[in-house]
Amino acid sequence: MKTKLIVSCPYCKENVEWSGNKWRPFCSERCKMIDLGKWASEDYKVSEKSMDESYATGFSIVKDDI
What is the CATH number of the domain that holds 23? Predict the structure, then answer.
């Protein structure tokens, strides 16, 4: 027996089956377009917080003198 993965639409929170849903992770084209519009109008923003130095552990930052 297959288990169905049910996820919550990021916009309206409706439960929707993941498999076979062409709008995933959204429940519908409407929710997908509303979400896209919010990104386009800058209602949503990515944090401007700078990268914590502990996050970059093991990496080196090299500045070229060009």
Answer: 3.30.50.10
